[in-house]
């Protein structure tokens, strides 16, 4: 259904548009819009950061979203974040991206623990992560965000 590839400089503008889209911002920890210059600098650093994996999902040669893994520490714990492109929502794309992304990270980095912070009222994202084997860690969640975890490998 989808394929994943590494993020490149050619994806910077699409990722910026997706990040600043209203629904994406509403469900993010930082809900403020991001200036293009700030985003462009972040992307340039990300392209050379060995502890960050950004993968672009494509379906039928069209960009469908992205998944990002940020290494949190030396013990192979990664924070996972996904964005489904606005025109691709509601068709199971989030689950497809997350499932394929977990497999890709295992191939890239080996066994790991994954963590995702999901806004409590974002029921759709909670369902996506739960359907891919993530469970809520109530001991590390707060009133606004639940922490969902999964082991891969």
Nutshell version of this structure?
The protein is α+β, with helices and mostly antiparallel strands and 153 residues long.
Offer a few descriptive terms:
alpha+beta; 34% helix; seven-stranded mixed β-sheet; 153 residues; 5 helices
Molecular structure report:
- The chain is an alpha+beta fold.
- The chain has 5 helices and 7 strands, in the order βαααβββαβαββ.
- A 7-stranded mixed beta sheet has the order 1-2-3-4-5-7-6, with helices on both faces.
- The radius of gyration is 15 Å and the shape is globular.
Give the secondary structure arrangement, pairings included.
Layout: E1 3-6, H1 12-20, H2 22-26, H3 36-47, E2 52-59, E3 62-73, E4 77-84, H4 93-109, E5 112-119, H5 123-131, E6 135-136, E7 145-152
Parallel strand pairs: 4-5
Antiparallel strand pairs: 1-2, 2-3, 3-4, 5-7, 6-7
Largest beta sheet: what is the strand line-up?
1-2-3-4-5-7-6
Query: How many strands, which pairing sense, and closed or not: the largest β-sheet?
Result: 7 strands, mixed
Count of distinct strands? 7
Helical stretch count? Answer: 5
N to C succession of SSEs: EHHHEEEHEHEE
Quickly give the structural class: alpha+beta
Distance between the termini: 23 Å
Shape: globular
As a percent range, the share of helical residues equals 25-40%
Backbone CA Rg: 15 Å
Mean pLDDT: 95
* Beta-strand share of residues: 25-35%
Low-confidence blocks of residues: none
């Amino acid at each position: 259904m989808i394929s994943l590839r590494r993020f490149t400089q050619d994806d910077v503008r699409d990722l910026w548009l997706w990040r600043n889209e209203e629904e994406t911002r509403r469900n993010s920890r930082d809900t403020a819009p991001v200036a293009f210059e700030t985003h462009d600098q972040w992307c340039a650093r990300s392209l050379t950061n060995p502890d960050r994996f950004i993968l672009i999902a494509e379906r039928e040669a069209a960009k469908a979203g992205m998944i990002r893994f940020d290494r949190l520490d030396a013990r192979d714990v990664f924070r996972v974040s996904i964005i489904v492109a606005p025109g691709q929502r509601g068709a199971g794309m989030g689950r497809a991206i997350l499932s394929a992304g977990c497999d890709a990270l295992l191939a890239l980095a080996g066994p790991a623990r994954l963590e995702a912070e999901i806004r409590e009222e974002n029921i759709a994202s909670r369902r996506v992560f739960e359907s891919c084997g993530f469970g809520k860690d109530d001991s590390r969640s707060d009133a606004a965000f639940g922490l969902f975890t999964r082991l891969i490998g």
